[in-house]
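One thing: could you explain this record?
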Amino acid sequence: MRGVVPAEPYHQRLRRLRRERGLSQPQLYRLAEGVSFDMIRAMERDPARATSSSRPPSRAPSADMLERVSRALGVPPEEFPEYRLAQARRALDPRAVGLDRALAALQRVERDLLG
């Protein structure tokens, strides 16, 4: 099993890492190529508190978004547990990888889970 990652939601971890590096949200936006300022703000928003009708609830970011933000912060994307989940979702999505590859990934997961 991989190293244990502290149980800290990605929005808190992202905010903490950004602040530890002395970056503002606009500065992180400029460093994270291909990630909009609104996405940076949404990623730092607590999904449990996004109840305002003017704000859609935030979703877990994609593996690609976490890779870009991690690169900008100078940390491995595995710093975010959600990254591994996003990778698994992508590997199991037949629209993203094709049906044959998605089924093969599912079989590997089942084999790993069942021992």
Remarks:
- Residues 99-114 form the longest helix (16 residues).
